[in-house]
Design goal:
The protein is α/β, with parallel strands linked by helices and about 240 residues long. It has a single domain, classed as Rossmann fold. Helix content is about 35%, strand content about 25%. The chain contains ten helices and seven strands. The longest helix is centred in the C-terminal third of the chain and has 11 residues. The termini are far apart. It binds S-adenosylmethionine. It comes from Rhodococcus gannanensis. Keywords: Methyltransferase, Transferase. It holds the Pfam family Methyltransf_11.
């Protein structure tokens, strides 16, 4: 069990946090990775400098400018139509960056057209995401990498709140799924830093049910939380080795 019920094939997975509260999700994205450790780890496991990268389930495109700093091209793909215009507004005027409507199961990209396929807390939640893995392998060039970032519910207080909020979520089952699909795993702990306690409370309120959110708020004495992430990577075959 992953704790998430998958919708019928072809329909996006409901993401209440960003669908219903995009402004608070923006506050959350700004708070995340305050020490840069997650992006540093990502760059170490899969560099995108000078390469073509797709961000699958890009939401309002928050991470596209970071990729655009040194990628050759950046494509954000998002299935929820209301999020596409804000994502396009964010990257307006950035050369080589675009946002397309589409989903992990049907990427609007040609075969073998990108070097890195990235997804952060989007679609790839474990069992059931096989169609998206196959689709990513289709669009990756030989030797390219699919990199999936999700939250590590085994780490710290944030992990404990996740498990309390999603009692059927089984982090070990998700890891076994990715391992069986040929992914490598890197763990990172990153700091979320909020400007004030109002922002902290609002973000906890879109991530957890009211009971867990209120308890979590009481357990954070200041403005920061350590949050564990998992980085799952799988390389596309690099082609025939002759000899
Ligand atoms: C929690 S948000 C994360 C957004 C973005 N990756 C970020 O970190 O800011 C999850 C995103 O996945 C998208 N999503 C849902 N179903 C999807 C699918 N089948 N394929 C691709 N993305 C999907 C949602 O619409 C939403 O934008």
């Amino acid at each position: 069990m992953t704790g998430r019920r998958r919708p019928p094939p072809g329909e996006p997975i409901p993401s209440p946090n960003i669908w219903q509260w995009p402004q608070i999700y923006e506050v959350e994205n700004r708070a995340q990775d305050a020490d840069g450790s997650l992006f540093a780890a990502l760059r170490e496991v899969v560099g995108w400098a000078g390469r073509d990268i797709v961000d699958i389930g890009c939401g309002t495109g928050f991470h596209l400018p970071e990729f655009a700093r040194d990628a050759r091209s950046v494509t954000g793909v998002e299935p929820h139509p209301p999020l596409v215009p804000p994502a396009r507004d964010r990257i307006a005027g950035m050369p080589g960056v675009r946002v397309l409507e589409g989903s992990a199961e049907h990427l609007p990209l040609p075969d073998r057209s990108v070097d890195v396929a990235h997804a952060r807390t989007a679609y790839f939640f474990g069992p059931g995401c096989g169609p998206g893995i196959s689709e990513a392998m289709r669009v990756l060039r030989p030797g390219g990498t699919l990199v999936v970032v999700d939250l590590d519910a085994t780490v710290g207080e944030y992990g404990e709140w996740m498990r309390a909020d999603l009692p059927h979520y089984d982090p070990a089952a998700v890891e076994s799924f990715f391992a069986a699909q040929g992914f490598d795993l890197t763990r990172v702990v990153s700091r979320w830093e909020f400007p004030d306690r109002r922002a902290l409370r609002a973000v906890l309120g879109i991530e957890f049910g009211p009971r867990v959110a209120e308890r979590a708020f009481g357990q954070v004495p200041g403005l920061s939380i350590d949050v564990g992430y998992r980085i799952h990577t799988r390389r596309a075959p690099s082609g025939l080795v002759l000899g």
